[in-house]
Design goal:
ATP-binding, alpha+beta, microtubule motor activity, binds adenosine-5'-diphosphate, binds magnesium ion, 38 strands, 15 helices, Kinesin motor domain-containing protein, P-loop_NTPase, 35% helix, coiled coil
Length: 848
């Protein structure tokens, strides 16, 4: 038996557009097999790790005409897909050809390059397709010595459910079952496994699987980064000369994003989803930890394979009969420091796991061998029967029967593959016809492609627009229509066209009058949504910028049109003045507050981020890195925020306080804190350093927004702002709100000379500890309820006052005691002095 450690590779990808736009710094460096990570907040703090392979795919590459990424110079340090395949893929292939099970896992946060490494994009084929190509070419090369059979399957684990990505039937609502058999271990019951003979067939199946995944994701409104994808290749090699068979399972796993799973999103299902995915990924982490402990000789009682679907299916890959490789993918950017560090720690533990891989021999093949051997013996016996001249008819008959039976059995075992293959080929032909048809249609007709946040699932579904008239618009049920939901864009588009020439004219006037002001049309709220996640009403606005001082205003359509008239007036006066005395410089001087090109500067809404409140209904804390989206969808900043359920004194609740059923909160007091920690990569400040920001938010029924203090001149300002909210008697409407809404965090831009935003506390109910009371009964509630609530508030306050009071009382008492003691000692002194001859009736001794 062999002991093999899990081999671990790390790979760092190039900056993506978002990171580049945010001016990110690369905090990873690699020297040979060691990788060093720098803490962006404390550059002296560096942590180094060693792995079996390290891949620098961050820089030093070019893109050839086919779109393939290659090292800039031959022998450069950039690790392309081929390099990664040579190290990891070929090893896996070799192992499986030798009859070992092999597993490849991709681990890392969403967007770090798992799918790129595993599957690849376009010309940059990943490990899986390359592995298949090489596998089939190696099968062809060795055709003389062995016959090979390859079975392919592809599944997804989403929310602890197994979805067969190759299934032709309707989706099983509860997912497929995972079962256990003594010899086989865990397996998915009813999973479709398709026999394949070429790499093209496998590629087609993968395409089909991805398509199913896309539709499933759309259908379930699912976030693909939370699902695990598992591709299995079963390789069976039959060496007829040696009459042995080797079996191996190749598992290729694209894991869910490793970032701490968050319950963000508006559907009620999200929370469960977050927790369930956590289950598979956290269990994987626990299994890895336990196995790492085993490897260093610690006593481990239990390895929790059975606690999640993923670990059940990967049991043999982890600490069992498999040669396993993990590729941990990393983002190079400073803002991903925490995630990257946690990925590296995870990978470090995985490195220690020891497997015991053995070459697999199949029982069915052994059976064939045994049957053949038995038949040979039978034939011998039969022939001997003839030679001896004896004719025991019965025995001959019996032996012949046995022989035919055995032969039939051998045939049955061997034809299974041929039959399967025929069926699969028919299937593939059908599918191929479908794909060819689609390709032809793509050349002939315009079509609409789906976009998905996961690059892997984008552009999979095609909607063809064929001859005839097609209506594109808001939900319409005419047969040839493409319905677009949610966008009230048409009216805006019309305004846009109308205002365009006016903006051009305004710009010309500004230039001629040396105003140094630039006008630009924008669509307000194009990318923004309200606290329920619904699109906000779109509108046209004009962004006005002073070219020199970079001051910015947003003007409504009406204001712009009005100002444009005034500008024209000014312009005409200027023209007239110029023709009168054409010699001197004659820009008409206006008082500032008369100047249509000018306005006092004000804070500007830069964008919003949504912090979903659902976890609060379960008393679960939430920590998020939120993307602040600008009106037109640009990333304005990353905002780190937390929601912390707490006690009335502000102590964070523990895990024991997590609720299974949110309705337990009804009529009870609920306390929580909103923490705004830091803003990172502020575009607003990067563009001009003399600017600042504030974050504003409105919670539930608060009528006025609250604002953080202003943070000036800093691209990554610490906000460190904490607000304690309490609902004294949680109502159903607050519960509904928590479960379906987000608090919209508004990022406001401050500019030189503008007043900062102030929280107006007038209409707000605050306790004397500055706890903001929410969930105040509206006028719709009965007077009785409102009285009750008032009473509760009163009692709550009184309770606190009483506590304060008792504290003060205690202080008073102890002070009193001290005073008494002083008096006592004094009177003792007096007594003793009287006993020295003074008159006891006169308490104040009179000197002389
Ligand atoms: P994940 O599957 O981890 O969520 P992806 O593999 O989809 O992430 O990668 C996100 C994006 O980064 C993709 O657009 C991909 O093309 C790009 N990317 C990832 N790794 C690399 C790499 N090594 N070289 C170039 N681009 C990469
Ligand atoms: Mg992916």
């Amino acid at each position: 038996m062999n002991k093999d450690c899990v081999r671990v590779a790390v790979r760092v990808r190039p900056f993506n557009k978002r990171e580049r736009d945010a001016g990110s710094r690369c905090i990873i460096s690699m020297v040979q097999s060691s990788i060093t990570l720098q803490d962006p907040r404390d550059p002296q703090n560096r942590r180094s790790f060693c792995f079996d392979y390290t891949y620098w795919s961050h820089s030093g590459f070019i893109r050839d005409i086919s779109g393939k990424y290659l090292p800039e110079d031959a022998g450069g340090r950039y690790a392309d897909q081929e390099t990664v395949f040579q190290d990891l893929g070929e090893g896996i292939l070799e192992n499986s050809l030798q009859g070992y099970n092999a597993t490849l896992l991709a681990y890392g946060q969403t967007g770090s390059g798992k799918s790129y490494s595993m599957m690849g994009y376009g010309a940059n084929k990943g490990l899986v397709p390359k592995l298949c190509e090489q596998l089939f070419s190696s099968i062809r090369e060795n055709q003389d010595s062995r016959r090979c059979q390859v079975f392919f399957s592809m599944l997804e684990i989403y929310n602890e459910q197994v979805i067969d990505l190759l299934s032709r039937g309707p989706r099983v609502a509860a997912g497929l079952r995972v079962r256990e058999e003594q010899h086989r271990g865990f397996y998915v019951e009813g999973l479709r496994t398709v026999p394949c003979e070429t790499a093209q067939q496998v590629e087609q199946l993968m395409e089909q699987g991805t398509r199913t995944r896309t539709t499933a994701a759309t259908y379930m409104n699912a976030n693909s980064s939370r699902s695990h994808m598992l591709i299995s290749l079963q390789l069976k090699q039959i060496f007829s000369k040696e009459s042995t068979t080797k079996h191996s399972n190749i598992n290729l796993v694209d894991l869910a994003g490793s970032e701490r799973q968050r319950a963000s999103g508006s559907e009620a299902d999200r929370l469960r989803e977050g927790m369930a995915i956590n289950l598979s990924l956290t269990t994987l982490g626990n299994v890895i930890s336990a196995l790492a402990d085993v490897a260093v000789g610690k006593k481990v009682v239990h390895i929790p394979y059975r606690e999640s679907i993923l670990t059940k299916l990967l049991q043999s890959a982890l600490g069992g009969n498999s040669r396993t490789v993990m590729i941990a993918t990393l983002s190079p950017a400073d803002i991903c420091f925490e995630e990257t560090l946690s990925t590296l720690r995870y990978a470090e533990r995985a490195k220690r796991i020891q497997n015991r891989a053995v070459v697999n021999e199949s029982p069915t093949e052994r059976l064939v061998r045994e049957l053949k051997a038995e038949n040979a013996r039978l034939v011998q016996r039969l022939s001997r029967l003839g030679q001896d001249g004896r004719r025991p008819c019965d025995e001959t008959k019996e032996l012949r029967q046995l022989l035919t039976h055995n032969e039939l059995q051998i045939k049955a075992i061997q034809t299974l593959w041929e039959q399967h293959l025929q069926e699969a080929l028919k299937d593939l032909e059908e599918q191929y016809a479908h794909i060819t048809k689609e390709r032809r249609m793509m050349q002939m007709h315009p079509y609409i492609l789906n976009i998905n946040e996961d690059a892997q699932l984008s552009g999979v579904v095609k909607l063809f627009i064929q001859e005839g008239e097609w209506a594109v618009g808001l939900s319409d049920s005419t047969p040839k229509s493409i319905s677009i939901k949610g966008l009230g864009l048409l009216a805006v588009f019309y305004d846009y066209i109308k205002l365009m020439p006016m903006v051009t004219e305004a710009n010309q006037m500004s230039q001629e009058l040396h105003k140094g002001v630039d006008f630009k049309l924008e669509i307000k709220n194009l990318a923004l949504s309200d606290s329920k996640g619904h699109d906000l009403k779109k509108d046209i606005v004009v962004r006005v910028t002073t070219v020199e001082s970079k001051q910015v205003w947003m003007w409504s359509k009406a204001k712009f049109v009005n100002r444009k008239f005034l500008m024209e007036e000014m312009y005409q006066q200027h023209q007239a003045a110029q023709s009168e005395e054409n010699s001197c410089v004659s820009v008409v001087k206006f008082e500032r507050d008369q100047d249509p090109f000018w306005d006092p500067v004000e804070p500007l809404l830069l964008g919003t981020a949504h912090l979903w409140l659902q976890t609060l209904a379960f008393c679960i804390p939430l920590e998020e890195q939120l993307q602040v989206l600008g009106s037109e969808g640009t990333e304005e900043a990353i905002l780190q925020a937390q929601l912390v359920p707490c006690s009335s004194t502000g102590l964070a609740l523990s895990e024991d306080d997590i609720l299974i059923d949110p309705s337990e909160l009804l009529r009870r007091r609920l306390d929580f804190q909103l923490v705004l920690e830091q803003c990172c990569g502020l575009r607003w400040v990067r563009e001009a350093h003399n600017r600042g920001v504030q974050v504003g938010f409105k919670m539930f029924d608060c009528s006025q927004p609250l604002y953080t203090p202003a943070a000036w001149h800093n691209i990554n300002p610490l906000l460190d702002h904490r607000v304690h909210f309490a609902s004294l008697q949680t109502s159903q409407s607050l519960l509904d709100y928590l479960q379906s809404s987000a608090v919209v965090l508004e990022l406001w831009g401050l500019q030189d000379g503008c007043a900062e935003l102030k929280s107006s506390l007038d209409d707000m109910r605050l306790t004397s500890d500055s706890i903001v009371i929410i969930d105040n009964p509206g006028p719709a509630d009965t007077a009785e309820e409102s009285d009750l609530l008032g009473l509760r508030f009163f009692v709550d306050e009184q309770g606190r006052l009483l506590r304060d009071f008792s504290g003060q009382l205690e202080e008073c008492v102890s002070k009193l005691k001290q005073d008494v003691a002083v008096i006592l000692t004094r009177s003792v002194a007096v007594m003793s002095s009287t006993s020295c001859g003074r008159d006891p009736t006169n308490p104040t001794p009179v000197e002389n």
